Amino acid sequence: MDNTQSSTANSLQAAQRQVRVQLTSQQEDIALPDSTGPILVPTGLRRYALSTLVNNLLGNDKPIPFEFLINGAFLRTSIDEYLTANGISAETTLEIEYVRALIPPLHIASYEHDDWVSSVDVLSASSASSIPQGQERILSGSYDGLLRVWNTSSQVVATSPSQTEGGHASSIKAAKFVSSNSIVSAGLDRTVRLWKYSESEDGFSGKIAPQLELYGHKSGINSLDVHAPSNRILSASADHSIGFWSTRKSDAPAVPENLLPSAASRTSKRRKLNTSVSVSQRGPLALLSAHTAPVSAAIFDAKDSTVGYSTSWDHSLRTWDLVTASLVDTRTTSHSLLSLEHLPDHHLLATGTSARHITLIDPRASATTISAMTLRGHTNAVVTLARDPSSTYGLISGSHDGTCRIWDLRATKTDKGAAVGDSVYSISRKSLEEEGKANSKRVGGEGVKVFSVCWDPQVGIVSAGEDKRIQINRGDGVLSSS
Amino acid sequence: MAALKASKKRKAVTRDVEEEEAGVFSGDELNNGDLDGALSDNAHDLSSDEDDSDSEIELVDDFSDSEDDVEELDSDEIPSDGEDEGVAKKKKSGTAVDLKEFSKDNGSSSEEEEEQLNYRIEKDANGNDRYIYDEINPDDNSDYSDIEENANTIGNIPLTFYDQYPHIGYDINGKKIMRPAKGEALDALLDSIEIPKGWTGLTDPSTGKPLELSQDELELLRKVQMNEIPEDGYNPYEPLLEWFTTEKEIMPLSAAPEPKRRFVPSKHEAKRVMKIVKAIREGRILPYKPPTEQDEEDKDLIKYDLWADEAERPDHPMHIPAPKLPPPGYEESYHPPPEYLPDNKERKAWEEADPEDREQEFLPRDFGSLRKVPGYETFVKEKFERCLDLYLAPRVRRSKLNIDPESLLPKLPSPEELKPFPTACAAVFRGHKGRVRSLAVDPTGIWLATGGDDGTVRVWELLTGRQLWSVKLADDEPVNVVRWRPGKDAVVLAAAAGDDIFLAVPPIADPETEQASLDLLDAGWGYAASKPATRAVDEEKKSTPPQWIRPSAALTDSGVCAVIPLRHIAKSISWHRRGDYFVTVCSGASTPASVAISIHTVSKHLTQYPFRRRIKGGGPPQTAHFHPSKPILFVANQRTIRAYDLSRQLLVKIVQPGARWISSFDIHPTSSTAAGGDNIIVGSYDRRLLWHDLELSQRPYKTLRYHRKAIRAVKFHPGGRYPLFADASDDGSLQIFHGNVTGDMLSNATIVPLKVLKGHKITGELGVLDIDWHPREAWCVSAGADGTCRLWM
Questions:
Q1: I need a surface site. Which of A115, B84, B479, B721 has the fewest CB within 10 A?
Q2: How far is B459 from chain A (nearest CA, A)?
Q3: Do A238 and B446 count as a contact with CB atoms less than 8 A apart?
Q4: Mind listing the pLDDT tens digit for each residue in A55-92?
Q5: Measuring CA to CA, which residue among B671, B688, B656, B646 is closest to residue B739?
Q6: Closest CA–CA distance from residue B550 to any residue of chain A (Å)
Q7: What is the pLDDT at residue B93?
Q8: How far apart are CA A284 and CA A468, in angstroms?
Q9: CB–CB of A400/B793 below 8 Å?
Q10: pTM to 2 decimals?
Q11: What sections of the sequence does the record tag as coiled-coil (chain A) (predicted)?
Q12: Contacts of A68 (CB under 8 A, 6+ apart)
């Protein structure tokens, strides 16, 4: 009784206190006019009240929910509590940045597989404009060596042929749509395979036919990147090299003889199985080798297809000039790098490390520090990264700890002189929830490791992992766009 | 006294009045009441009158009366007792009256005597005798003497006869006696008179008007009458303000001490003192001890006084007077100034300090007065010390080292600075049924090979924990050890299962490397085929080295290329860094000493037994390793490790870790290359992890006892990129250490425990059975008895 009274008294007292705030937004469509000076608001306000205030100031008919960032942290309490917690005087003018509020990434669907799913990609209007709404396709590469194309109602439209009919001889580690009728995949059998994908008229059945086999790597391929306009593919392999390939048969050079499977004479009986279907075989345009350890990821620059980036277990991130196939720059970190994503608007490369965090690296020669920002939160190696299609600040990461985490690059704080970020949302695997152990933590992410994540504006956040399923989470509005 | 008597008298009067009233209204008790009244009224007169009479009875009566009087005069008794006395008195006087009457009625015999006494003879004018009689006093004896004038004379008739008349009878003069007013009638009368409020019946002398009093004034009067405090709001019991007794003035008017005249001597104390004085006087207390015989005897003793005839001597080099003690300072005062008094901290420091370290031997203390100062407990000791000082007597002084124990501890770098090292489990490899006995990370760092109790060898993708290849080598015997061939040019896995050693090429490499591996293993077939004839002739002993054979078709299909039938269970495989040789050790107790250790040459498919005889002392061999750079083979048996130079075929060194039973050891990878000596870590079943610097000693440089149970495996990080080593124990944990070996010979290796990795479950008393490091990264893998392997990064 007394407590409530005193607390109400406190809140009353707090409500009477006022603080000067300067409301700003980096998004122009919701920005307040420049003439808006600092506003005096009661310190008792919370997010909702502030949101109403901003909507009133903007004169919005339909209120937009806003989130408020003070010094890189989202306001989750009243301003008063924030000021008390951070020891800020109510006399100062508070710089508050507001962004559109986020909607949690709710689980939408799960597509079950027979084996671990190593790779996932989405074909939608954003990647190929001819795809109508609702006709999005999800491509999954699995450890059983098969590619599957799914429609959005969790039906398999097409499955790639098995090993005997020209399919992968081993697990697929990476798969991507090149265009709406072309797929590329690669895996532990050291080949990059190009497939022709065709669908029937009704869209309920399709065919994945082998088109081209690309030989050149001497060890398993970890990841692929595709630049469709120039028909180029980058592959990262555990043999310490990066393959640079063309999707066109005419462009590609011939295969070096020693790498063809027929070169191995051992157990010829087993190898013969592969010859029932004959597929053209080509070699790489270039093999870029400078890394001294398995290459984990290689990507094209998002704006300039002649520039490539690669990360490796040898702790380095290297920049390549793909025209001359030469090494431009090397940035060495202190951990093995396992994944890579380019954030073109910030001139940053996000790379996931074996040390359980994501490092943002400025690859430009002018950058003085190697690590621009560190995103901490995962409890196991970060093996996949994807950009937010709607926000330049958004990033999603998949980790062997069985979670995908969404990061907002604006929500950072400075720790020991380095910028450190915290995740906005953490998506755990639905399979864990279905087992009724949603909150339990698996040691080493056993059984729930995430291997691949893809963020599409139409489909949402698609992630695949050791739980043998693709999990789709709602992706739009999760991060405030700008 | 006088006042008391007065009050007593007054009391008596009031009582008389009451009795008189009673007498008026009730006729029955009239006489008695009258008598009482008369008696009590003039008791003294009566008695004094009677004093004159000579009768004995009167005298007796008189005596009693006088006693009464004495009592009345002297007693301090309370009035209630006085009343009792009064009653008793009445009774006595009553009896006296009766006695008189009695004596008159019956006193005929003594009539004449009385009459003779009642008259006196005088001479009349004629000279004749004339009898003059005393006047007859009718007094008490007369019946009518006391009849009241207005007594009712109606006689013995009931009063009810007069009920209808206003009178109740007639007095002796014939006048009507009116009926006395009853209470009811009075009340009725009073009620009929209307009295105004505040009517007092008094007249205000100043105005002449009737004095009327207000309610307040009446209340005031009532309070005065009742001895109450007349004023409202006056508290007679207000708390005492002790202005001059307990209140301590900050600035007193006078700071003069309490004058002695205010001293009030204690009567109690004086009494006690007097008691004691009296006792002393009477000899009950002896103030001095009587001199005993002992004391008397002591008189015979001769006592020497050193200083008896000491005279002032002039200053002289031959005479050094005793140094004088410094005069006492403030701190030795019984009432030192407050700044000399130690505070709690100083007091604690003084108490904790060693007596020899204390600057002064006492703590200044404050006493209110000198008489409260207790005896100085170390007085004798201090004087003794002073004497010793004067004699310059040598005394043993404790030599004390003033060293901070913290500074003696080696300065270890904090684990934070020594990153990276494995801290968390990154992957769990589940698949083996039963224990996983051994595991190894391949030289490229991508694959992990494991072998377990289920007889299978499996190859996994290291990062994801995906099983890629599995082969069952033995149906009912465990795979004891798996080891990859070093070098990246070929992929060869050696595994020991049962009595055999298997060499396999897992299908994980590209065709070129796979072909190279197959070629490497196949090359020896031809060499072996050309050799055996000569060898068989040469060696007729029973310890014939085994011939390498091709595996069964099923195993060939799975990738196994060669089998070495050792005929004994090999527990340890160790490759030479070039990849052409490997050494196996069969540590079973039943294994003949000569065949326990065998060295295999891959290129020639040749197996040799380098040791013909049993190693003396230390039990059967346990494990063996090649030196990473020199042609030296280290062989560990249960208690010692011996280093043999293979090129010169010599025993180079014997290392004695002091452990009861060595389980495993490892040689530092940069040993002897980066200057410095060889460093070896040894794990033992008696829970010890020992670090040997071979240049330093045969004995361990460091012994680490951190595990609760036997240590199964120890391993340095290969390649020397990270100065890490780890051990695996049966208590289910791994421990990661930093072990930095510096190049220069002067500094020792720094060993820092970094991390205990827990996760493996203890199954059947076994915890972690094997451990291996990633060739480049600070990651390690462990094989557990719980059937899992774990990757730690």
A1: B84
A2: 13
A3: yes
A4: 888 887 877 888 888 887 778 788 888 888 888 887 88
A5: B671
A6: 15
A7: 45
A8: 32
A9: no
A10: 0.65
A11: none
A12: A47, A50, A51, A74, A75, A96, A97, A98
Please give, rounded to a whole number of angstroms, the shortest distance from the CA of A393 to a CA of chain B. 29
Q: How many CB atoms lie within 10 A of CB A382?
A: 28
Q: How many angstroms separate the CA atoms of A129 and A136, rounded?
A: 11
Q: Read off the tokens for B191.
A: 């009620």
DSSP states along B413-434? PPGGGG-----SEEEEEE--SS
Cβ–Cβ of B424/A356 closer than 8 Å?
yes
**Which residues does chain B have within 8 Å of residue A381's beta carbon, measured at their own beta carbons?**
426, 463, 793
Token duo for residue A303? 């704006």
pLDDT digits (tens, 9 = 90+) for B190-233: 777 777 776 777 787 788 787 878 888 888 889 999 988 888 88
* pLDDT attached to residue A116: 92
Mean pLDDT over B675-680 rounds to 69
CB-count burial class (<10 Å; 0-12, 13-18, 19+) for B337: exposed
User: Which residues of chain A have a CB within 8 Å of the CB of B463?
Assistant: 338, 381, 383, 400
Residue A147 · residue A139 · CB < 8 Å: yes
**What residue spans of B29-182 are helical by DSSP H?**
30-41, 43-52, 56-74, 79-106, 111-118
Residue contact A354–B509, C-beta within 8 A: no
Answer yes or no: is pLDDT of A296 > 70.
yes
> Residues A115-165: pLDDT tens digits?
999 999 998 887 766 777 778 889 999 999 999 999 888 888 889 888 888
A259 and B464 in contact by Cβ < 8 A?
Answer: no
Q: Does A466 touch chain B (CB under 8 A)?
A: yes
User: In the structure encoding, which two tokens stand for residue A442, read together?
Assistant: 């698996």
Contact status of A444 with chain B (Cβ, < 8 Å):
yes
Given A190, A264, A380, which is nearest B515 (Cβ)? A264
Identify the weakest region by mean pLDDT among A191-200, A409-418, B481-490: A409-418
- Output the CA–CA distances (angstroms, integers) from residue B417 to A348, B413, B414, B420, B752, in the order listed: 28, 7, 6, 9, 11
A143 vs B446, B466, B557: nearest CB:
B466
User: CA geometry: angle at A130 spanning A129 and A135, to 5°?
Assistant: 105
Query: Does the bond joining B374 to the residue before it have cis omega, within 30 degrees of 0?
Result: no
- Sequence-distant (≥ 6) Cβ neighbours of residue A124 within 8 angstroms: A131, A136, A137, A456, A457, A458, A459
Using the Cβ of A259 and the Cβ atoms of chain B, whether some distance falls under 8 Å is answered with: yes
Which position has the token pair 């700890």? Answer: A401
Answer with the residue of higher pLDDT: A33 or A113: A113
- A295-300 and A232-237 beta bridge pairing: unpaired
Residues of B in contact with A266 (CB under 8 A): 505, 514-515, 518
Mapped onto helix, strand or coil, the DSSP state of residue B357 is: coil
Please determine, for residue A302, whether its predicted confidence score (pLDDT) is greater than 60.
yes
Residue B508 has pLDDT above 50, yes or no: yes
Shortest CB distance from B514 goes to which of A143, A266, A354?
A266
H helix or E strand, kind and range, residue B2: helix B2-25
CA–CA distance, A94 with A42 (Å, rounded to integer): 12
Q: Which residues pair with B427 in a beta bridge?
A: B791
Q: Do B776 and A451 touch (CB under 8 A)?
A: no
Q: What angle do CA B404, B406, B411 make, to 5 degrees?
A: 130
The predicted complex's ipTM stands at 0.82
- Residues of A with Cβ-Cβ distance to B430 under 8 angstroms: 446
| B2-25 vs B30-41: helix crossing angle, rounded to 10 | 160
Mean pLDDT (chain B) is: 78
Q: What does DSSP say about strands A280-282 and A206-214: parallel, antiparallel, or unpaired? A: parallel
Which chain A residues contact residue B468 at CB under 8 A?
Answer: 170-171, 188
